Amino acid sequence: MAGVWVLAEGREQTLELLNIGQMLAAELGAQLAAFLWEDQKLAQEYIDHGADEVLWLPPLSEDQPLEAYIPTIVEASRQADPDIFLVGGTLRGKDMAARIAAQLNAGLVSGCTSLKWEPAEKRLVMERLVFGGIATQTLVCQTRPQMATVPPRTFTIAAPQIGRVGKIRELPAPLSSVVKVISRRTKLRESADLSEAKVIVGVGRGLAKSEDINLARELASTIGAALGCTRPIAEDLNWMPADSYIGISGQRVKPELYIGVGISGQIHHLTGIRDAKVICAINADENAPIFEAADYGIVGNLYEVLPKLTQEFKKALKK
User: Fold this and answer.
1) Domain for residue 209, yes or no?
2) How many domains is the chain built from?
3) Do 62 and 123 lie in a common domain?
4) 193 pLDDT higher than 80
5) Which of 21, 72, 166, 276 has a CA-to-CA distance to 285 between 20 and 30 Å?
6) What mean pLDDT is predicted for residues 137-147?
7) Rounded mean pLDDT of the chain?
């Protein structure tokens, strides 16, 4: 069998895909390969994390977009005919995956949260969330390669096997793309990167006015947490930056602890926090849907609960 290929924009996403890729390759009894176009020093790290082969893409010129690699990737895939092709599900990754799938005349399942190999049928069974996260859809591809995009942080990064042996194969330099990059400007974030936060305090429509966010901000500062919110707080009321809201169309987070303040718990938001290890909810309505998803709940007025909770944390941290 030709094996499993993984393609992602950056190091962390590649290592995440190598984790699940290694499991799938073992079940197939096949090789695992990873694309690399960044620092070639990362090749050995990819090998340590399970890659049997690193497919090195030569650097592009400054005026070439990342999509210029697509013809080279497609040609390599036609020659090797991999069984499974996993792509990191970032905005650019999904765009590249769609173009690669179209040129290979292959099926593509986007936003996969689960990947399982069925040896009897020799097929990859893929699951993804649908209908705003309230249901799971199971799909298979009838074509080769079986392609899927996987959202960042769906899988963890496995411990490396230091000194593992693999090979590096340099692919042909890509042809010049007709699309030219005129300039590059870094998009500045207005809030912290919630995807990396270990502890998050989230606020919702239970707050009466924007100034009241300071109550949650003080709690977050006390316990070293990042501050997030529901979509209405950012999109409708503009009380917080747009890149700080958590939900199916916003950020999906995976903290050790999530504290939801004044959040009713609509499915749009719950989908974004479903991977949190511990969820604590604070809401005056004991019937709020968020309590069904919470590990711990405090029924009470947030204007009374938050100051007391912050004070208790401050006392505990002084000991």
Assistant:
1) yes
2) 2
3) yes
4) no
5) 276
6) 95
7) 93
Domain identity same for 142 and 36: yes
Residues 166 and 202 in one domain: no
pLDDT per position as a tens digit, 50-107: 999 999 999 998 889 899 999 999 999 999 999 999 999 998 999 999 999 999 999 9
The Cα–Cα gap between 126 and 143 comes to: 14
Looking up residue 203, the CATH number of its domain turns out to be: 3.40.50.1220
This prediction has a pTM of 0.83
The mean-pLDDT minimum among 72-81, 125-134, 300-309 falls in: 125-134
Which pLDDT band, with edges at 50, 70 and 90, does 190 fall under? low
Domain residue limits at 203: 194-318
Same domain, residue pair 12 and 160: yes
**110 and 14 part of one domain:** yes
| CB-based contact 269:251 (threshold 8 Å) | no
The answer to whether position 126 is within a domain reads yes
The residue assigned the tokens 């962390």 is 12
User: Looking at residue 245, what DSSP letter applies?
Assistant: B
The total of other beta-carbon atoms located within 10 Å of residue 159's CB is 9
CB atoms within 10 A of CB 162: 8
- C-alpha span between 25 and 36 (Å, rounded): 19
Query: Please, which residues have CB within 8 angstroms of residue 136's CB and are 6 or more apart in sequence?
Result: 113, 127, 128, 129, 130
CATH of the domain at 150: 3.40.50.620
Q: Which residues of 261-296 are buried (b: 16+ CB within 10 A; e: fewer)?
A: bbbbbbbbbbbbbbebeebbbbbeeeebbbbebbee
